[in-house]
C-alpha cells in the first residue's frame, strides 16, 4: 500500500528472493491445534510473519432461524483482520475485501466438510488475522481446516493452502507481501491432498498457459508440504508424540 | 486387534479393499477414508474410526443426562449437550390423563433440574424425543455434574464397564454416565466424591494413553491410604 521501493530486487541472479528464500521454498510455518478453551475447536498458525487464530463452533443451533436448512447443516465463515494486523490501523468493520475472503474460504472448505448429517445446524468458523504479511487467505484456510478437524466436524479430507506466483518472470512458491505488491502474478491454491482435488484457485495477474500449469503444479506441491504440518499439528494434540 | 489400530486424521486412507464402512469413514472408490481425528479399527469385514473429538449426536436408546432449559404448557425443553434440544412431552411424566389446564409442569421439573433420560426417538427431520418413564430414569436429586467430552464416554466406561466399575469401587461413589458426556457423581464421603471427579477428569484428559487403567488404579489406591 504505497511507499514501496519500486526498484526492490525480488529475485537476484542466484535465484534467491527478497527474503532470502529459494524459488520453491515456503516461509516458516508453525501450526498448533487447540488452544482456545471456549471454542469447540481451534487452531493457531504462523505462516512467515502471518499470525492467525481460528475458532470453530458447532454444529449448533442456527440463529437467525431462517438461515437454517432442513436438508443439511450450513457453514459460516468470518474472516476478520484486527486493527493492528497491518502497518496502518485498519478500521475494524468488515471491509469489501474481508467479506469476499470470508466467502472464498467458506467455498473452499465446503467440499471437505460433511454437514449433511447435521440438518438444521450451523458450523461457525471465526478467523482472526492478528498479523498480516501477504497470503493470509491461504494461511487462514489451512488453519480453519485444522480447527474444523479439532472440533470433530466430519471431513472428507483436510484442506491445505498456499500461494504460488510469478516474480521476475519466474514461477515461485509462497508469495509474501512484497512479492504480492510488486510481483507479476499471485495464485492462491487450496488443495485436498488425499482426494487430490483443488478447492480454491484464484489468480491475480497475467500468466501464459505454460506458466499457469507450472504455477498450479508448484502450488499443489506446496500444499502437500503444508498438509504434513497440519497432520503434525493434529497428531501432536491428539496422540502426543506417538503419532506418526 | 491391537496391531490393526492406527491414529488417523480426516483424509487418511485407513485401508483399501472390500470392507464395509461404519462410523466416521467413507468409501471412495476402493479406498476407505477417515473423516474424523481418531483411532481406526479394522474388523473382519468392516472398518470404523473411534473419534477423539466432536459433539454428541443423539442416538435412539442412549442414556443421557439432560438439563431442563424451559417448558411450554405441553412439554419441557431439555439441553442434552448436543446441537439439538431434547423434547420431553408432559404425557411422559404425568401419564396419559395429563391435562394442560389441571397439571402444572413446574411441579415435576423446573428449569435447571437435571434428569436422567433416554432418547426415545430421533431422526434427521425432528429434534430428539426423550423419555424419563423407565427404571433408573427421572429427575436427579443429588450428586455433582461433571462434563467430559462425549467422544471419551466409551473410554470412561471401559471394556464391559471395567473402568467405571473400578472407579466406583475405589471411591464408593455412584456414577451415572450419560452418552452425551455429562456424568453425575454422588458419594456419601466428600473425599470419595473428589477422588471420583478427579479420576473422571483424568480419563477425559488422557483417554488416548495406553495404560490408563493402571494409572487410575494407582491414583485411587494412593489417595485412599494417605
Describe the structure.
The complex is a heterodimer of chains A (244) and B (226). Chain A is of the alpha+beta class and 244 residues long. Chain A has one domain: Ribosomal Protein S5, domain 2, CATH 3.30.230.70. Chain A has helices at residues 96-109, 136-150, 177-182, 209-239; strands at residues 29-33, 41-47, 50-61, 74-81, 121-131, 160-167, 170-173, 185-192, 197-201, 204-205. In chain A, the strands form two sheets. Chain A has a five-stranded mixed sheet. In chain A, strands 6, 7, 8, 9 and 10 form a five-stranded antiparallel sheet that branches. In chain A, α1 (96-109) crosses α2 and α2 (136-150) runs parallel beside α4. Chain A is globular. Chain B has 226 residues and is of the alpha+beta class. Chain B folds into three domains: 2-51, OB fold (Dihydrolipoamide Acetyltransferase, E2P); 63-140, OB fold (Dihydrolipoamide Acetyltransferase, E2P); 144-225, K Homology domain, type 1 (Ribosomal Protein S8, Chain: A, domain 1, 2-Layer Sandwich). Chain B has five helices and 16 strands. In chain B, strands 8, 9, 10, 11, 12 and 13 form a six-stranded antiparallel sheet that branches. Chain B is flat, with a radius of gyration of 20 Å. The model of chain B has no long low-confidence stretch (mean pLDDT 88). The interface between A and B is medium-sized, with 38 and 27 residues.
Q: In DSSP terms, counting alpha (H) and pi (I) runs of 4 or more, how many helices of chain A?
A: 4
> How much β-strand is present in the residues of chain A?
25-35%
Helical/strand content category of chain A: alpha+beta
Rg for CA atoms of chain A: 18 Å
The CATH class of the largest domain in chain B turns out to be: Alpha Beta
User: What sequence of helices (H) and strands (E) makes up the elements of chain B?
Assistant: EEEEEEEEEEHEEEEHHEEHH
Q: Between the first and last Cα atoms of chain B, what is the distance in angstroms? A: 39 Å
Amino acid at each position: 500500500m504505497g511507499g514501496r521501493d519500486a526498484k526492490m530486487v525480488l529475485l537476484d541472479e542466484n535465484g534467491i528472493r527478497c527474503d532470502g528464500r529459494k524459488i520453491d521454498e515456503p516461509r516458516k510455518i508453525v501450526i498448533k491445534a487447540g488452544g482456545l478453551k471456549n471454542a469447540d475447536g481451534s487452531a493457531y498458525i504462523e505462516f512467515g510473519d502471518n499470525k492467525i487464530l481460528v475458532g470453530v463452533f458447532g454444529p449448533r443451533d442456527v440463529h437467525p432461524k431462517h438461515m437454517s436448512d432442513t436438508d443439511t447443516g450450513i457453514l459460516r465463515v468470518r474472516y476478520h483482520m484486527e486493527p493492528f494486523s497491518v502497518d496502518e490501523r485498519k478500521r475494524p468493520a468488515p471491509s469489501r475485501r474481508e467479506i469476499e475472503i470470508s466467502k472464498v474460504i467458506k467455498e473452499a472448505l465446503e467440499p471437505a466438510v460433511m454437514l449433511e448429517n447435521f440438518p438444521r445446524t450451523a458450523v461457525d468458523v471465526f478467523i482472526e488475522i492478528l498479523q498480516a504479511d501477504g497470503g493470509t487467505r491461504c494461511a487462514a484456510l489451512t488453519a480453519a481446516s485444522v480447527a474444523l478437524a479439532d472440533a470433530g466436524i466430519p471431513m472428507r479430507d483436510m484442506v491445505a493452502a498456499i500461494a504460488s506466483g510469478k516474480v521476475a518472470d519466474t514461477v515461485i512458491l509462497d508469495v509474501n507481501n512484497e512479492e504480492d505488491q510488486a510481483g507479476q502474478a499471485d495464485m492462491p491454491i487450496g488443495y485436498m491432498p488425499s482426494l487430490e482435488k483443488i478447492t480454491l484457485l484464484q489468480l491475480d495477474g497475467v500468466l501464459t498457459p505454460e506458466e499457469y500449469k507450472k504455477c498450479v503444479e508448484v502450488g499443489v506441491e506446496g500444499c502437500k508440504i503444508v498438509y504434513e504440518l497440519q497432520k503434525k499439528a493434529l497428531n501432536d494434540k491428539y496422540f502426543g508424540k506417538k503419532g506418526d | 486387534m491391537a496391531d490393526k489400530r492406527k491414529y488417523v486424521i480426516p483424509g487418511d486412507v485407513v485401508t483399501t479393499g472390500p470392507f464395509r464402512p461404519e462410523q466416521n469413514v467413507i468409501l471412495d472408490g476402493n479406498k476407505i477414508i477417515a473423516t474424523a481425528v481418531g483411532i481406526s479399527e479394522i474388523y473382519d469385514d468392516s472398518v470404523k474410526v473411534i473419534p477423539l473429538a466432536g459433539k454428541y449426536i443423539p442416538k435412539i436408546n442412549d442414556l443421557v443426562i439432560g438439563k431442563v432449559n424451559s417448558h411450554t404448557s405441553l412439554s419441557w425443553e431439555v439441553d442434552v449437550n448436543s446441537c439439538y434440544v431434547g423434547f420431553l412431552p408432559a404425557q411422559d411424566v404425568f401419564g396419559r390423563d395429563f391435562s394442560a389446564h389441571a397439571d402444572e409442569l413446574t411441579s415435576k421439573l423446573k428449569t435447571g433440574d437435571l434428569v436422567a433420560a433416554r432418547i426415545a426417538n430421533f431422526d434427521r427431520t425432528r429434534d430428539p424425543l426423550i423419555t424419563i418413564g423407565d427404571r433408573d430414569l427421572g429427575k436427579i436429586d443429588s450428586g455433582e455434574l461433571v462434563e467430559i467430552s462425549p467422544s471419551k464416554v466409551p473410554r470412561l466406561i471401559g471394556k464391559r464397564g471395567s473402568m467405571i466399575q473400578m472407579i466406583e469401587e475405589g471411591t464408593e461413589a455412584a456414577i451415572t454416565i450419560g452418552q452425551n458426556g455429562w456424568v453425575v457423581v454422588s458419594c456419601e464421603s466428600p473425599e470419595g466424591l473428589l477422588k471420583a471427579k478427579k479420576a473422571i477428569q483424568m480419563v477425559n484428559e488422557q483417554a488416548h494413553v495406553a495404560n490408563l487403567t493402571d494409572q487410575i488404579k494407582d491414583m485411587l489406591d494412593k489417595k485412599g491410604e494417605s
